[in-house]
Structure formats: structure tokens, C-alpha cells
Amino acid sequence: MIEIVTGIAALAAAAVVAGWLARRVALRRGEDEASELRRRVEQGEQRLQQSDAQRILLEMVIAAMGEGVLVVGGSGRVLLANPRLRELFSAPAALEGRSLLEAVRHAEVVDAIESAVAGGVAQVGDVTLGPASERTLRFSVAPFPSRDERAGAVAVFRDVTELRRIEAVRRDFVANASHELKTPLTAIRGFAERLADAELPDATAKHAVEAIVGNAKRLGALVEDLLELSRIESGSVPLRAEPIAAGELVQRLLRELDPRLRAGELESEITIEGAGRVIADRSALEQVLANLLDNAIKYTPAGGRVAVQVRPAPEARVRIEVEDSGLGIPRKDLPRIFERFYRVDPGRSRALGGTGLGLAIVKHLVQAMGGQVGVESQLGDGSRFWVELPAAPAIQS
Ligand code: ADP
């Protein structure tokens, strides 16, 4: 009996101890959890403070920017507009939540932003603000990377009024100077040619007159090229877009250049893949191809080859390549080859009657027709100039 009582007492004591232990463990766990919780709250607060600081910094940067910034959400409502944007567009103070049209009140800009939001494609352009301000803004609109419910775009506007004014002054100066040079130059050339036809007393005089004629011709070509560049840049001669069979145009040009090809002992070849029809201005395209073929002939020594390929390119374009087996262009010169007056070898170019403006004209004309131009070349290994233009829709039979 005593044993049973002792046993029960021992059991009870054990239960008490176990209970006490369990409470201690639970208490410890509770304390651990509480401190873990405290640690997390502190971390969270720190992170919140950091992100607050980042947000404030970002807001300060955007507010201080010299460019107007407009952020638009997928619904076309303004999410953010900085003070510069409100100033540029004379927009009301609180733009957030308003419609795009209320913010910029300019159909062209609204269209660009809406297409960036809807199509996810970046847009760039110039816009001239109303007669009151006469300001020109360069805008670039970048869509948000995600196109789900967080669709939207960021538009940045830069005031380029002064830049465009200086560009126009430079353009006008070149155009006016070339125009002024043209009249006296025509007279010099005319008189020199008359003298060259006349009986001259001695060889020195004959030689001098020939030199005057030759140089007047060169100067004339230069003036014509400068005037042409000014005309293209100012957009004073509007381009007329029409479907053109590029392959046939190249064939005709090659036929016309046949005497020069023969004189240079050059072979020519044309390959046309697909319809080869482009949307372009006829005389501009002719000028582009004539310039590229002229260069190919000029810079290819006797025994060489000039080949033209016309073929379809991605994104509904047609690619025209003018390839030659000539001198080639050093790698370091390639990025600058389309700049005006940039020549690899100025002496050679001048000797061959070049003005250094041909490729600049090519680039301007191709860009004005909505196309692209480029070159692949290696010194001593020929050159391949390419032009890509929008393809004309196929003719329905
Ligand atoms: P240029 O009147 O001097 O030919 P362009 O603007 O047409 O002027 O060309 C600029 C320069 O590019 C040329 O001076 C020449 O150095 C180089 N170039 C153009 N086309 C070719 C070519 N097919 N092969 C080698 N060099 C070329």
C-alpha cells in the first residue's frame, strides 16, 4: 500500500515537474517568437525608411529635371507629371488622374503616347506647340516593359527650339552661299569654255584655260551637291511616294553606265529576287542608286566587278545591295563614311571628280523615303552598300 502511495506521489511529483518544464519551454518559445517578431518589424521599418528615402530622392530628381516627364497608365490616365512638363504645356497643377488630352492638349503627342501604351513600341518625334509659344519639343515615349495590367508609358519632352533654329540658320547659310556662288561660277565657266574653243597663242595659255574649265566644273558640281543637300534637309522639294520596280531601274542605270563600265574594264551583274517593288520617290531613288553605282565604278580598279542584288527583306522591306570588288574601306572610316565631306582618301576622291557629298545625299534621301542605308566593307576586299526601303504591296492579278 505504502508502495502504491509512494508510486502515486512520485508520479504526481513527476507530473508537476513536467508541467513546470513544459511551461518554461513554452515561455522560452514565446519569448523567442516575440524577439523574432520584433527583429522582423525593425527590419521592415528599416526597409520602409529606405524605400521612402529612395522614393523621395526619385521624386526630387524627376522634379528637378530640365526635361518634361509624363507617366501614363494603361487606362490613359496620368500617373505622374513633373513641373517642367506642366510648364512646357501650360498644364494645370494637379494632373495626376486626369486624361492624357488634358495634360498635353496636342493630338500628335497623344497619338504617339497611346500607340506606345497600346502597341508596346517606342515612339520619337518633334512637335511644334501652338502659335503662342512657337516652341519645338523633341519627344520620346517608352512603353513599360510589362504589357499586362501594369501597361503604360513614360514620355520625355526636351525643348529643342534653339537647336532647330541654329540648324535652320546653318542650312540657310549653306543654301544662300551656294546660290550666290552659282551665278559667277557659271560666267567663269562659260567664258573659259569660249576661250578653250578659240585659237590660243601658246601652250601655257591653253593649259591654263583648260585648268580653269576643269576647276569651274568641279566647283559647279560641289555647288550643285550643296544645294541638293540643303533642298533635301529643308524638305522644300516634297518627295512623291509611288510603287517602283527597283530591279528595272537598276537595269536601266547599268545600261546607261555601260560606257563607263567598259572604260574601267568592269563586269556588271544584277540579281533580282521576288517582285523587287519599293515605295519611293522615283527621282530620289534614281539619284541614290546612281550615286552608289558611280562610287562602285570609281573605286574599283580595272578587271573588277560591280554586282547589284534586289531581294525581299524582313518587315515588308526590299533590300538593294550594290557590291563591288574594289578598294574597300578601312574599318575605322566606316562609321563616318556617310558624313558630308568625309573621304577615305581626299586626294583620290578629288582626282576622280568626287565632291565628298554623294553618300551624305544618299543617306538623307533614303531616310526621307522612310528607309535605311548602310555599308559593309574591308580594306582591299570590296564594299557592299545596302539600302532598305518599304516594299510596295503585291499587284493583285
Ligand atoms: P566622293 O565624291 O568622294 O566619292 P562620297 O560621299 O560618295 O564622296 O563617298 C565618300 C567617300 O567614301 C569616298 O571619298 C570614298 O573614300 C569612300 N567610298 C564611297 N564609296 C566607295 C566604294 N564603293 N568603295 C570604296 N570607297 C568608297
Could you say what the CATH architecture of the largest domain is?
A: 2-Layer Sandwich
Which secondary-structure class do the elements indicate? alpha+beta
| SSE run | HEEHHHEEEHHEHHEEHEEHHEE
List the domain count as a whole number: 3
Gap between N and C termini: 118 Å
Whole-number radius of gyration? 37 Å
Small-molecule binders: adenosine-5'-diphosphate
Residue runs with pLDDT of under 50 for 5 or more positions: none
Order of adjacent strands in the largest pleated sheet: 2-1-5-4-3
CATH class of the largest domain: Alpha Beta
Can you give the mean pLDDT? 89
Q: Which strand-content bin applies to the residues?
A: 15-25%
DSSP E strands, number: 12
The CATH topology of the largest domain is what? Answer: Heat Shock Protein 90
Largest sheet: 5 strands, antiparallel
Shape: elongated
Number of helices: 11
CATH superfamily of the largest domain: Histidine kinase-like ATPase, C-terminal domain
What distinguishing features does this structure have?
397 residues; Heat Shock Protein 90; five-stranded mixed β-sheet; elongated; binds adenosine-5'-diphosphate
Structural account:
52% of the residues lie in helices and 19% in strands. It has helices at residues 2-64, 83-88, 100-104, 107-119, 161-197, 203-234, 246-256, 258-263, 282-298, 346-351, 358-368, and strands at 68-73, 78-81, 123-128, 136-143, 152-159, 242-245, 267-272, 277-280, 305-313, 317-324, 372-377, 383-390. The strands form 3 sheets. A 5-stranded antiparallel β-sheet has the order 2-1-5-4-3, with helices on both faces. The chain has a 5-stranded mixed β-sheet with strand order 7-9-10-12-11, with helices on one face. The mean pLDDT is 89. It is an alpha+beta fold and 397 residues long. The protein starts with a helix and ends in a 7-residue tail after the last strand. It is elongated, with a radius of gyration of 37 Å. The chain is built from 11 helices and 12 strands. It has 3 domains: 63-159, PAS domain (Beta-Lactamase), CATH 3.30.450; 164-234, Orthogonal Bundle (Helix Hairpins); 242-390, Histidine kinase-like ATPase, C-terminal domain (Heat Shock Protein 90, 2-Layer Sandwich). Helix 5 (161-197) runs antiparallel to helix 6 (203-234), helix 6 (203-234) packs parallel to helix 11 (358-368) and helix 9 (282-298) runs antiparallel to helix 11. The protein binds adenosine-5'-diphosphate. Adenosine-5'-diphosphate (ADP) binds at residues 295-296, 299, 324, 326-327, 329, 337, 343-345, 349, 354-360, 383.
